[in-house]
Amino acid sequence: MRFDLVDMQLFLHVVEAGSITGGAARAHLSLASCSERIHSMEETLGVPLLLRGRRGVSPTPAGEALVRHARLVFQQLERMRAELGDHAQGLKGTVRLLCNTASLTEYLPDALAGFLARHAHVDVELEERASHEVAKAVREGAADLGILSDAVDLSQLESFPFRTDRLVAVATPALAEVLSPDGRPVAFARLADFDQVGLAGDSALSSYLELQARRLGRTLHTRVRLRGLEAVCRMVEAGVGIGIVPEPAARRCAQTMTIAVLELADAWALRQLAICVRSFDDLPRHAQQLVDALRA
Fold it and tell me: What's this model's pTM, rounded to 2 decimal places?
């Protein structure tokens, strides 16, 4: 049984993409070459590694075992590279970091910029995910560390405080006066009756708000989805609907836009963001340095 590193990395790409086509694109290989390599791995092993369907592929039990071991192999290689980096000038280390929307847009940029400026040998692969997906990926070894809401299940993970994040509503001043004439916090259930302006459907914040609506037995009517928080606030200013965004973004936009900021009465609107890892001691040295920088 001979699987080289290219085969294992390719298989991880396919599983993470959920399709052979997506895996081939991530690995910068042709679809034919990717399919041939996967088929060769299955022939060598003697069992199928992927379940193929109309909607894509998923790993078989044997494929899941290969995923676990391949991730361990690449984590060990990353640790080796980190240790050798102390002795070889210019050797790169990479940290895969997953985070939710608030972390990505409001809190990480400054912290990451300072860290990357001080550590020219370290690259960071940054990706936005919903908090429960971040926890799952870190737990399974698909990411080195994550930043998420500590309201999700953090079992089998080490966690460290990162930031306190508050979600607020933004609306036109006229609508804000109707919703809260005395300036008191407004319940999300009441806001759900109005048209919404939201982020793209694949954003972590969008998924989080839809989850809260489902818990109330409601469905949000989102008139438009955008890629940035400033764009959301611009649409709100134009009277398109109500937006729910992290408070720092709302306060910043309110300085230049004619919008009102409303606090939410719901407990889930105030979130503690945490850094999570499987084991700090087992991280490569450069990943430990990033955790220390984020905690600071």
Answer: 0.69
